[in-house]
Amino acid sequence: MTTIAFDTTDLPIIGAPMAGGTTTPELTAAIARAGGFPFVAGGYLSAEALAPLISRMRETTANFGVNLFAPNVVPVDRGAFDAFASALEPVAADRGVAIDPEPVDDDDHYTDKIDYLVGNPVPLVSMTFNIPSAEVVSRLQCVGTQVVATVTTTAEARTAADRGVDALIVQGPRAGGHSGTADPTRSIEDRSTADLVREVLAEVDLPVAAGGGIDGVEAVDELLQAGASAVVVGTLLLLTDEAGTAPTHRAALQSEDFDETQLTSAFTGRPARALVNDFVRKFDPIAVDAYPAVHHLTKSFRAQAKKDDDPQWLHLWAGTGHRGAHTGSAETVIKELGAPFARE
């Protein structure tokens, strides 16, 4: 079996690619210094914007990955979408935000980014939101890049294996931020990531990394014991010095006022785990499965909430292990999580 890039670091810890500015060059550099595996977060970026981040990563380490959002078109139920937009409009108006009720679609510059990565190969590319096509997998592998698919079910794992990927990242439902599920309309039931890892490994013969609900060393050990070769952490890095987490988000993570997380499609039209706030309480009951249309609909509203330092209307991504997050250097966090399992 091929040795996967994330299995060659000193520590079996992977820094999750948190798109939207949370994963900064400073954060990836700190993860690399600690002996973990860093990911450049390519989501929401054009190929032109992604290129300099990759260049900076190359200056730090030769062993890293790039994560992309794979397109996954969900037909928009226009009636449900319009009802959601109508409900959002008065709330947005109260905060001085104008929203565009017309659905917007895009592929997150996916084709351009694949073309760039084929022309400028990196060690590893991972995909989330959908399983990459066999053609894309082959194109990347032909230039020496390992391809990894994020999966959330055994069925997705089998599909990914059939399409020739080199490894899997198994994401449990307790992970913070967006679920990587290839079927964003499905009902996602709570379960342990370790159990999901064992089920996936019983179905496919591929290296597996895993994440979701990590709150400390014991959770890392549980996933490694289940058969994962590395553990992905994201929420535990949100309070670190190097993360680009918004001040409002940082404060909420440390506040006793926000003690519950929930999977919701209300913010973007795709299931994502966040701290429960007023936005979740008001809009989750009428949430629409329509990514990226809802993402674009609510984007200006969420940007204003960040500007106003208002946590009740901001997407406060967080996994169930968020109480394990601490301030300080990401290098220290990675070392503390991974040191007991250092590779020889």
From TrEMBL:
Belongs to the nitronate monooxygenase family. NMO class I subfamily. Keywords: Detoxification, Dioxygenase, Flavoprotein, FMN, Monooxygenase, Oxidoreductase. This is Propionate 3-nitronate monooxygenase. InterPro entries: Aldolase_TIM (IPR013785), NMO (IPR004136). GO terms for biological process: response to toxic substance. It catalyses: 3 propionate 3-nitronate + 3 O2 + H2O = 3 3-oxopropanoate + 2 nitrate + nitrite + H2O2 + 3 H(+). The lineage of its organism: Bacteria, Bacillati, Actinomycetota, Actinomycetes, Micrococcales. It holds the Pfam family NMO. It comes from Brevibacterium antiquum. Its cofactor is FMN. One of its GO terms (molecular function) is dioxygenase activity.
